[in-house]
Amino acid sequence: xxxxxxxxxxxxxxxxxxxxxxxxxxxxxxxxxxxxxxxxxxxxxxxxxxxxxxxxxxxxxxxxxxxxxxxxxxxxxxxxxxxxxxxxxxxxxxxxxxxxxxxxxxxxxxxxxxxxxxxxxxxxxxxxxxxxxxxxxxxxxxxxxxxxxxxxxxxxxxxxxxxxxxxxxxxxxxxxxxxxxxxxxxxxxxxxxxxxxxxxxxxxxxxxxxxxxxxxxxxxxxxxxxxxxxxxxxxxxxxxxxxxxxxxxxxxxxxxxxxxxxxxxxxxxxxxxxxxxxxxxxxxxxxxxxxxxxxxxxxxxxxxxxxxxxxxxxxxxxxxxxxxxxxxxxxxxxxxxxxxxxxxxxxxxxxxxxxxxxxxxxxxxxxxxxxxxxxxxxxxxxxxxxxxxxxxxxxxxxxxxxxxxxxxxxxxxxxxxxxxxxxxxxxxxxxxxxxxxxxxxxxxxxxxxxxxxxxxxxxxxxxxxxxxxxxxxxxxxxxxxxxxxxxxxxxxxxxxxxxxxxxxxxxxxxxxxxxxxxxxxxxxxxxxxxxxxxxxxxxxxxxxxxxxxxxxxxxxxxxxxxxxxxxxxxxxxxxxxxxxxxxx
Length: 584
Known about the structure:
This protein has 18 helices and 26 strands. By secondary structure, the chain is an alpha/beta fold. The two termini are 32 Å apart. The chain folds into 2 domains: 13-423, Glycosidases (TIM Barrel, Alpha-Beta Barrel), CATH 3.20.20.80; 432-572. α5 links the parallel β5 (91-98) and β6 (133-138). It is globular, with a radius of gyration of 25 Å.
């Protein structure tokens, strides 16, 4: 893809990232690198290189490399990985703290946190002086909220001053780290990430929403040296006794070279004083007013600002290059494809508007563990670009999509459908009579062969997932597809519940897939998933049905619908549920 004047003629790059959080709850550390098995698999880097990523957000975490301040760092693990990345031509973006609070001897509320992180950063830079891009602390505002305002993570504080102290310690840690790094490599760049969203509210909560919309910029505003006496946050922080710290930061700022925007479908929030409309788990307050706090996409009839709003606002506020540093949707495979494609397309469109977006990051390459509990418990595994359900990384349909996006390659048909966040059913808290019915348009379809309860279960799930589909019962096999789908339409995949389909390999006879004499389509344009009652493989529960549809979408990792047909026997594949949850 060609660049433009705003980006200096540089093409939009594909970056990657592994979920590498090391967070602490109580005395227990949860290490995503261990949970994913990436700690033991150097070969994962070759898989990432095959995607075509130009840069990789990668952990050289303080807690893992130098847990004991009296001992020398253990470089064995990062040595092997960074040298392999260098050989593969992947630029590392080194991360030193990722939702953590440092080794056991420190914490986000420790006065020595920043000094300790700066010392460690200098050691890392001396070891790898060729590394040019750094994120010393990932998402400092989000980490401070979870660790010192909500109490989810260590040190489990729950008050405003602790929150601001935790944030300032991370900002000071970033400044100290970059000073130490630039003594080794003066050209080192700071790529500062933050989860950025917009808050809207009902009239009684407009003041709270306005505060949230100022606070969301705090990490970057501090690093840019903007939190001076005329800043909206300065007065409140000064009254907490933090004025001198703000002054020191403003006098010696550390502005990011690249703003790293992380935005999730849950990042835009909505505050509502009408508690009766929401489940108790969403109830909260600010000590003065009680309210529900939920995802704006679930409660606001107008489409929330979303990723486009976050990118435009960041560009208008700071005017420095931007990277979308996390693109991930913990959902079914089709919704993951739609979110990734939308993220890339959004970046392309904004570049055309003059927004300097440099890269889009395929995040959570190996998936993540436990984010449905906010990393406070075991939780669920949600797949990413690769699925670890079998114990070894298996590419999902996301791998083919990400590999092709920089080149404008054709996409899996389900990626072109609107995601749930673009469909009326996104509104969980709207009255039913205000939610219009989604119109089914012509386009590539999923064929469900067979009838009865199981076929109906597959059809219901297809409706929920926004998948165009057709159900063909026994009596409808012959001639059912004549003229259906409409002109220009195709069938990209088949769920065969009958056990009677004969799928011929490409080149066999006329290369067609036939069912009871009816032609379903060219074998080169579809994948077929066969299910039978043998072994209990036919079930109606939603998790099972979702898993089978995900399997079909993933079935031919080179896109069966486009490059060559394929079929799967479900008895040879894991049949456990694979549906995941939204990260935040």
